[in-house]
Design goal:
With 90 residues, this protein is mainly α. Helix content is 83%, strand content 0%. The mean pLDDT is 78.
Amino acid sequence: MFTLTIVVYILFSVVQEFIARAGLQSAFYRFLPKAKGNHLKSIILSNLLFAMAHSHIGTLFALAAFAPGLFWAGCLLDKNHSLAFVFLIC
C-alpha cells in the first residue's frame, strides 16, 4: 500500500507541475504586456497561485511550495523552455 501511495503522489505531483508551469506560467507570459520583466512576473504569478492552491494544508506548506518553485520550476523552465528538463532536475 505504501508503494502505491508513493507512485500516486509522484504522478499527481507531475500533473500539478505541468498545470502550474505549462498552463499558468506560459499563459501569464502570453497574457501580460510585452515589457521588461515579463518572464519574472509570469513566474511569480504562477508560483503564487500554486502556493495558494496548497495553502489549505498550511501556511508553511504553501511557503514551502512557493520558494523552491521560483528557482526549480520557474527559472529553469524559463531558461530551458523544457518541462521535461525541469522534471529531470527536480
